[in-house]
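ok so I'm stuck.
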Amino acid sequence: MRLLENIEVVGLGQACIDYLGKVSSYPREDGKIELMELQSQCGGPASTALVTLSRLGIKTSFIGSISDDPIGVEIVKGLKADQVDPSFLKITSGHTSQFAFIAVSRESGNRTIFWHRGSAPALRKEEVDLSWFSGAKVLHLDGLMIQASVEAARQARAMGLKVVLDAGTMREGSLELVSQVDVLIASARFAVPLVGEDSTAEKALEALSRLGPGEIVITLGSKGSVGKKRGELVKQKAFPVEVVDTTGAGDVYHGAYIYGLLKGWDMKTCMRFASATSALKCRAMGARAGIPTLDEINRLLEENPRE
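replied:
not stuck anymore, here's the structure
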């Protein structure tokens, strides 16, 4: 386990296999449409963020729960291929692992996701032990396994790690978890139960800031992202790219933002780098195929100077 001393970012959450089909239009209920393209690819919020970091040269380790079914075998293979350490991945025989079917629009690149969490048992809080990661600086969570996530956040803060949460959907226990994190990166829909459907991103930021995190970002897809830290409001436009598929764009954003945190950048620089990285990901189908290199990211940033 000596290699774990080199781990800078630990992630706890979801890993899955995505089956992606491109469609010319979305059929009505009880309708039918031919898929123009079909492929499978590894995905999952926390694990894809770690893959992004790994490709940027950061040592990472993933903690999750899967089975030893064919999907689970591919998940492990995908993590190892991207040099994400799987030493603490819980594998339970005789169950199913998480998977998703994703319909991708040919015209917009937007995606509709149907997912199944599988029957592999969730991590229990008693199974979380971050003491192995003596050199870690950041814990990244996607919040699906709430109790394990809360315990991991508690341990991480005691160890002096920065805790980052990818908050996609408000679930039971989400507010307790949010109170334990330092950096909250949320989807636009996450704050809806708190502020209502038609509220502004600024109002959502204000509501979320009262829950505890000192640094909050709300991702807005093609509208960019908006953040708040120490009362300062930061806005970042989306970078112009030819969009093929938006699957995993938010996950890649999280990984790229964490890269900025590790480099000691301010919020505006982190958001700009993350926005460029997630935009470039959208050039290819799937969560991971389009993750760009550092050179590609820097090139896009140079071509689009700060305003």
